[in-house]
Specification:
mainly alpha
């Protein structure tokens, strides 16, 4: 190639345009293939889903604490009638139900440990803040003298 051919703006625009088209085609292919996979997974989930899924309902409770009548809302993760529900006769459905229940139990255990850790952290923070307040009060008392 000669120097004139290398610096030709039409050639550069053509190369850039070609690369842009190739990238656009590649991205469109990726997008279409991922949406097709999502649709097939969604259809499989619908086919395997029970006729009436359990819906979590919020339950409001009153906590007894030093604060007067604090109300908090909790979300029910497991329905009460779950223990009374009949076990499916099909072995594969029973295994799926057991796997679901094990997963729920694992989530509850993880949530419990997380809440205990948060409670411990909050207690430590409260103690540190109390110490900080005491130190600030002592400094104010010394400055006031």
């Amino acid at each position: 190639m000669t120097v004139d051919q290398r610096n030709n703006p039409k050639l550069l625009v053509g190369i850039i345009g070609g690369l842009t088209v190739l990238i656009a085609v590649f991205l469109a292919y990726q997008w279409l293939s991922s949406s097709a996979e999502t649709n097939t997974e969604h259809q499989e989930e619908l086919a395997a889903a029970p006729a009436k899924p359990a819906v979590a309902t919020p339950v409001s409770t009153e906590l007894e604490s030093s604060a007067p009548a604090m109300e908090t809302e909790t979300i029910k993760l497991v329905e009460d009638d779950l223990l009374d529900a009949p076990v499916p006769e099909n072995a594969s459905l029973a295994k799926e139900e057991i796997a679901k229940l094990d997963d729920i139990q694992q989530q509850l255990n993880e949530q419990e440990t997380s809440l205990k850790q948060q409670h411990g952290d909050a207690d430590k923070l409260i103690n540190l803040k109390e110490e900080q307040i005491k130190l600030l009060e002592a400094q104010l008392a010394q400055q006031g003298k």
